[in-house]
Specification:
Two copies of one chain form a homodimer. Chain A contains 15 helices and 18 strands. By secondary structure, chain A is of the alpha/beta class.
């Protein structure tokens, strides 16, 4: 397998009006654009100016004359849009493995919420999130949506490593590690919106935790804030039967209806899990344009259930994919996550034709972006869109025979096949190396924090 | 993270009667023995003489004085028994990705069986199997049970790379790529038994394909051969509802009863899949001592269904784990396979407590060995057993916090964390490198075969 040669050419300042200085050219790869026609180029070329795709097309003889600040030779590689992780709690890597083999309820109440009180701080969130971002980028993800605490630290980490992030400070009725009450969290959300408005990588979201942790007034205020600022929102929804029973008993309606009546659902809202929708819920979701993010590995690990994809897609509901946090998966790989979606849907319907690899890739890219109102900017490789690109090395034996790259991605690819990732036009990982961070130093800090947690956690 | 330093000491020929020359010492790691008490040593040491474990225990000060032909410093590593893959069709890597998203029936009849007629030969089986073995060893597997054609080529490949293999030439009513009829296959099985009796890595098995491809006479003769030679046997069993209907309609009994009445089941028999057992079948399996190998990823991908583990274990039926062939998974990793078992069982019972990581590891090691009558020799790290050992690097961020290695293996480990594998006392993979094969040359041959198949497959 040829090594990817990173060459460079002279950078010519444009003297002639029609000569555009190109920052980065990626050549030689098989490109799966994931546009609405599933256009492919083989070999293809991408020209990036600033943070956007300026040109994408066949890598033909004319391309030889192209000059750019840098040329990335990706001969024999496979290129896809960087994956979009619709749901995460990245800072929770510090709790990975804590509290084994428990239901969601027991895990949250007996392990996680007490542990968060003790250990969640700006420092641990920064390091923990950075660790998760390293795992995410290493497995081809370019954007993730986070719901946690001290989100400005997550922003700092994302900025450091160069990753795109949608950040929501978790809104709950009761005190969180970062805020004493919901009103304070919402105010903080507004402050973050102001602070990061022009940041190229950071988008602020209103993140209400769940129907069972947010009273009607809180949901209403959260919805109003999202509308006022015209930003996306997200929430856990109908993850367990217990949640449905609790909300029905409390408010006399389903969790989806509860949110809808308070104005929370909409075309820039993403609902995570969505395992227990009734027929009316499905109509509500479809009419509101809310996207459901399926969180398969977590649903399995916590024994919550399985999403019935066909019920949602039949109603025209968009479905995207998320990994959940590293403490309830326990990996952070969108490659493995989309592979899991395939398997689960095939087996619950006992029908291998129920979902196809191209559909899966859409769920892991453009559907994710659309859910958060970013579908015009991201999620496919098209002229004018942001340059978020994943470059895969298909050299391993499991990529052969090379019948169909979509098929291989869906059923055989390893996360470790991801070679390089471009986010916002920048190479944030090159040949598996992160140019923007000192990986060993971060791992070292993370290990220290982990050891400390491990020792303290067993003390009363 | 310290690098694993491979040092060496002088080898002293034993002059004194009580001085034993040790071939390989592995020091410094956390050892999970998977013995019946789940004994652990941290740090631990293993002494290997020839192909067996001579000593295993704490790596204390006294160990400093030990002399050996070679010392492998595995400081900070995690050691487990090499994994045991109970079911594979290794040569099918040449068909990976062929025929997308089809049911078992359509896939076999319209793609695989026609393709096998054209492309399965000694050459393609040798290369295809070697490719699968590379993937298996890279993900920590030491032994696999194969059911395919030209199994003496698989033996040649296993011998080349140094992998332990249980080989069964697939017995069917109709002509196979290697034999015109069942009687010829059974005769060949006997010949292979004679040829490989003393081979340290190769065990021959009687491999009848399935109840729906083997008539009563063939099953009976296969069972008799296994009894006569006192060797293990294996078969696909109750993989689909259609199989149950077919057998019931043909013979007026369930597939399990069909086999049992013909004498095929027993304590050295492994039945693959086992998705559709009725209550009587469960009793039959329990009484006969037959092991069921669960083949989770394949069951999902082909939409066949899910094993109901509790129903089997409640009756005392042993359950092991297998990957199936690379064309119906499509990976070959027992790490990912055992992780999938965990998720599926938790979600089908909607109960995360239904299975624990230590149980999973047993299913992936000692249960596999016991199924094939090798439980005294393999499957756990104990004095006197064969030295089949997997050495894992737990340095990646997903291994932290280090609360519980069983937990991490079950939920977060990547196949790529496997660093070195010892099989039969020999290092068959060291720091991800295979000392016994030219990997690039094999990949090259495999790619040529793959490309050829890809071109020809679309011609009439």
């Amino acid at each position: 397998m040829d090594d990817s040669r990173i060459g460079s050419r002279f950078y010519f300042i444009a003297k002639m009006k029609d000569q555009i200085p190109i920052d980065l050219v990626v050549t030689g790869a098989k490109i799966l654009t994931l546009d609405e026609h599933f256009t492919e180029y083989d070999p293809g070329v991408i020209h990036i100016i600033g943070n956007r795709i300026h040109h994408i097309g066949p890598d033909d003889a004319a391309q030889q004359a192209v000059k750019a600040r840098r040329i990335l030779h990706a001969d024999g590689r496979i290129i896809i849009p960087a994956l979009f992780n619709s749901h995460n709690h990245a800072g929770m890597s510090i709790f990975r493995g804590l509290g084994n083999d428990l239901s969601l309820d027991g895990w949250l109440n007996h392990f996680i919420w007490p542990a968060e009180k003790r250990f969640i701080s700006p420092e641990t969130v920064y390091i923990g999130s950075l660790i998760s971002m390293m795992e995410m980028i290493r497995s081809g993800t370019g954007t993730f949506s986070d719901m946690y605490f001290f989100e400005e630290e997550v922003a700092r980490a994302a900025d450091k490593i160069g990753m795109r992030a949608i950040l929501g400070e978790g809104v709950m009725d009761f005190p969180t590690p970062s805020h004493p009450a919901a009103f304070a969290t919402l105010r903080h959300t507004r402050e973050m919106f102001n602070e990061f408005q022009d940041h190229p990588l950071i988008t602020i979201s209103v993140a209400a935790h769940a129907p069972y942790t947010c009273s009607p007034d809180v949901i209403r205020k959260a919805a109003e804030l999202a509308k006022e600022l015209n930003i996306c929102s997200n929430i856990h929804l109908s993850e367990t039967i217990k949640e449905v029973e609790t909300i029905t008993s409390r408010y006399g309606k389903s969790p989806a209806k509860y949110l809808s009546d308070l104005g929370f659902l909409g075309p820039q809202t993403v609902a995570h899990h969505g395992l227990y929708f009734n027929d009316e819920d499905l109509d509500i979701l479809a009419e509101s344009g809310t996207t459901t993010a399926t969180i398969t590995n977590s649903n399995m690990k916590l024994g919550s259930g399985s999403l019935q994809l066909k019920k949602l897609t039949k109603k025209g509901i968009h479905v995207s994919i998320g990994t959940d946090g590293p403490a309830s998966n326990n990996h952070q790989s969108m490659i493995r996550e989309l592979q899991e979606v395939a398997r689960v849907q095939k087996v619950i319907y006992q029908d291998p034709t129920v979902i196809t690899p191209p559909e899966l890739l859409k769920m892991a890219t453009i559907n994710g972006a659309q859910g958060y109102g970013m579908g015009q900017q991201l999620g496919s490789l098209e002229v004018g869109k942001l340059a978020d690109i994943t470059i895969i090395d298909p050299g391993g034996p499991h990529w052969y025979p090379p019948f169909d790259p979509y098929n291989t991605i869906a059923y055989a690819m390893h996360s470790g096949d991801v070679e390089s990732v471009i986010i916002n036009g920048q190479l944030v990982m090159e040949q598996r190396v992160f140019p923007n961070i000192d990986e060993e130093e971060i791992l070292d800090q993370f290990r220290k924090i982990s050891q400390q947690i491990r020792q303290e956690i067993h003390q009363p």
